[in-house]
Structures are given as structure tokens and as C-alpha cells.
Design brief:
By secondary structure, the protein is an alpha/beta fold. It contains 11 helices and 8 strands.
Length: about 400
């Protein structure tokens, strides 16, 4: 049996809001070129598959039928529907909008089905992770919420507990909202404080609906949080809550816009730290869910020097063929990047592992990140029978 299934086709590049938009298809193109040049597509543990756009019935498991019809209508006519988030600066209308977004949904759902059925252990869709889309509206570059559709499909197939872990710099508000009152889904979002970044939500005190208290976990970090503090925050919150929840499958979103070079955010988390976080999620899946892991892309707008490095590493991690930190990137890929973008690509895959301080070393009340960590622990841990002040 193959270990991992990677959903990919050049058709996924059709999710394109036009020139100048941060969600540039080139970030996917350059990632897949690097995946190929690194020889990952030849790994015996990895299979690559394509999908057709999802039918409306599948999309409507997490979106209102009226909204899906509105997306189709806006794409066909070019007329904005701003009330539903269509035709805004974030989500401009384009002719293939419905089909392109529906293909992202199909890819993430396919990955979830393959994992749940046991055909593979891990599923990856780097084009997915459109976590801002709401039931009835587009938001933040996201037309349809493929991450939520993957989670819902797992529930429909019989999963009783699904953990969703979101590492994007922006709060995973759409997925959280869709499952706000569903105790079968744990949503964990580690993001820049919403007081300083879109979408303006995700406070530590937001912990789920009345029927699902404690199943929404929000770790809102201050601007300029670096990789060492980011890993400390993850370590202090994510494993403990996920272990108490005992998921049967983990779905994770690996938006890499927490990097210091990203033009849209204010965090400072390097490639090495983001690779470490992916490994931790992978390890949790094997520890708690018999390895069942669905890994998605997400945000990330440093198209040349961050996105391809983080997501190629994610594919390698899922294929059980991890890349060594600091390896020299293929010269052929670097030439392609220069020819396509005119930019000077990185020479190496990160600069080394990040030294970080575990929460067990003690709480520092003068540290902004430690205060954010403790706020989340205070709001969430007692619901799970955990002591916010001890491990």
C-alpha cells in the first residue's frame, strides 16, 4: 500500500483571481516543480491523483445551496455579489471560479476518503486549505471551504471525532464557524492575534457553542512572534488538547504565511519551525489516529522563497521521505524560478533546526507569547480536565 496520496493536476492552477492578486497560482506551480526536481514524485510511498470538480451536492454539505448558485451566477455573468463576498478585492469574480473552487473541494474530500477507507495513511492537497469561506459567503481569498468539506465527509463516512489543526497565520474562522456547535469536531487554530490581522477573530475565549464547549481552541499570538516562541506555543497547547480529544483522524491546514518574509502578516516563523510543526502533527496522527492524516495547504504569499520550500517539505513528510534541513536546492529548479519570476530563489532548504524552550521550563509573565499561551490554556484546559498551570 502507498503511504500517501497527493492530489495534483495543472487544472488546480485555474484557481486564479488575476494579475497582482496575492493568491498567485505560481506558488503552487513552483511548489510542484520543486517536488518533482527533488525526486519526490518517484518515491514508491507516494501516489499522485487527479479529480474532477465536486458536484454541487458535495459542496452543499458545508455551503448553502443559494450560495453555490450565486457563485455559479457570478462566474457566468461577471456581475459581483458583494453581499456574498463575490466581486470584492479579496475575492474577484473570474469565469472559471465555480469549477476551480469545486475542484479544490473534490481534491480535499478525495484525500479524506482515501485516508478513511485505508487506501492510504496520509492524504495531501497543497492547493486546499481555503479555511475562511463561510456557509453563505466567500471570504479572504476563499470561495468554497474545502477543509470543512473534508471534515464533513469524514463525519458522513462514520468518523466520530475529527481534529482540525490550523497553522495558518490567519484564524481558521470558516472551519470553526461551520463546526462551532458540533462536539464531534475539535478545531485548533494557531494564528496572529485577530486584533492585528484579518479576519479579526479567534480570541482565546472563543471555545465553541453550547453543545460543544471546549472544542474550539484559539491560540492568538502577538505580531513578530518568532519560530522559537511559535513552537513553544504549539507545544504548550496543541498536543495536550488533541490527546484528550482522541481523534480518529487529523485534518491539518499548513498555510505558511507565518513566515517573516510573507507580505500579508506580521509573524516571523521560519521554514525550519514550520517543518517541525508539520512533523509534530504527523507524529500525533500516528500516535492517536492510526496515522490517519489529511494535510492541506492554505495561505502563503512569499511565492518564491517560502511556499515551495514549506510545502515540498510537507509532501516529503507525508510520503515518509523527509527532506534534510539545509539541503541544497536543485540548480535546475533555481534556474526555472529565475526564468519564470525574475527573482533570486533560495539556495538551501532552511538554515537549521530551531532551538525552542518547552512550556515545562516555566511560565514567564513578562513574555507576550507566554501570556497568550496561558490565556488559551485557562479558557480551554479545564473543559478537558486539564490543569492550565501544569502539564
Amino acid at each position: 500500500m502507498r503511504v500517501a496520496r497527493l492530489l495534483w493536476s495543472p487544472e488546480l492552477l485555474r484557481y486564479d483571481f488575476g494579475p497582482g492578486h496575492p493568491m498567485a497560482p505560481a506558488r503552487l506551480d513552483l511548489t510542484m516543480r520543486l517536488v518533482a526536481e527533488l525526486g519526490l514524485l518517484d518515491e514508491p510511498t507516494l501516489e499522485v491523483a487527479d479529480v474532477e470538480p465536486a458536484p454541487d451536492a458535495l459542496i452543499e454539505t458545508v455551503h448553502d445551496a443559494a450560495y453555490v448558485a450565486a457563485v455559479r451566477r457570478a462566474a457566468a455573468t461577471g456581475v459581483p455579489d458583494v453581499a456574498r463576498g463575490l466581486g470584492t478585492d479579496d475575492d474577484p469574480v473570474f469565469p472559471s471560479m465555480h469549477e476551480a473552487a469545486a475542484r479544490l473541494v473534490a481534491a480535499s474530500v478525495d484525500a479524506a476518503e482515501a485516508v478513511w477507507s485505508g487506501r492510504v495513511v496520509h492524504g495531501v492537497n497543497i492547493a486546499g486549505g481555503m479555511h475562511h469561506a463561510q456557509r453563505g459567503a466567500a471570504s479572504g481569498f476563499c470561495i468554497y471551504n474545502d477543509a470543512a468539506a473534508a471534515v464533513q465527509r469524514l463525519l458522513d463516512l462514520g468518523a466520530e471525532r475529527v481534529a482540525y489543526v490550523d497553522l495558518d497565520a490567519h484564524h481558521g474562522d470558516g472551519v470553526e464557524a461551520i463546526f462551532w456547535d458540533d462536539p464531534r469536531v475539535l478545531t485548533v487554530s494557531v494564528h496572529q492575534d485577530g486584533h492585528t490581522l484579518f479576519p479579526g477573530s479567534g480570541s482565546a475565549g472563543d471555545t465553541g457553542g453550547t453543545a460543544a464547549q471546549g472544542t474550539a481552541v484559539n491560540l492568538a499570538l502577538p505580531p513578530r512572534t518568532d519560530g522559537a516562541h511559535w513552537l513553544r506555543a504549539l507545544d504548550a497547547v496543541v498536543p495536550a488538547v488533541v490527546r484528550e480529544f482522541r481523534p480518529q483522524v487529523i485534518v491539518s491546514q499548513h498555510g505558511c504565511d507565518a513566515h517573516g518574509n510573507d507580505p500579508l502578516t506580521d509573524l516571523n516563523v521560519g521554514v525550519g519551525a514550520q517543518r517541525t510543526a508539520a512533523r509534530w502533527v504527523h507524529d500525533l496522527a500516528h500516535e492517536l489516529a492510526d496515522g490517519r492524516w489529511v494535510a492541506l495547504g492554505g495561505g502563503g504569499y512569499a511565492v518564491v522563497d517560502v511556499v515551495p520550500l514549506v510545502w515540498a517539505s510537507l509532501v516529503a513528510e507525508a510520503a515518509h521521505a523527509p527532506l534534510a534541513i539545509g539541503i541544497e536546492l536543485p540548480e535546475s529548479w533555481r534556474r526555472e524560478v529565475e526564468e519564470l519570476s525574475g527573482l533570486d530563489p533560495a539556495e538551501r532548504l532552511g538554515s537549521g533546526d530551531v532551538a525552542w524552550r518547552p512550556w515545562t521550563d516555566g511560565y514567564d509573565p513578562a513574555d507576550d507569547v507566554d501570556r497568550a499561551i496561558l490565556a488559551t490554556r485557562r479558557h480551554v484546559f479545564p473543559t478537558w480536565g486539564l490543569d492550565p498551570y501544569r502539564d
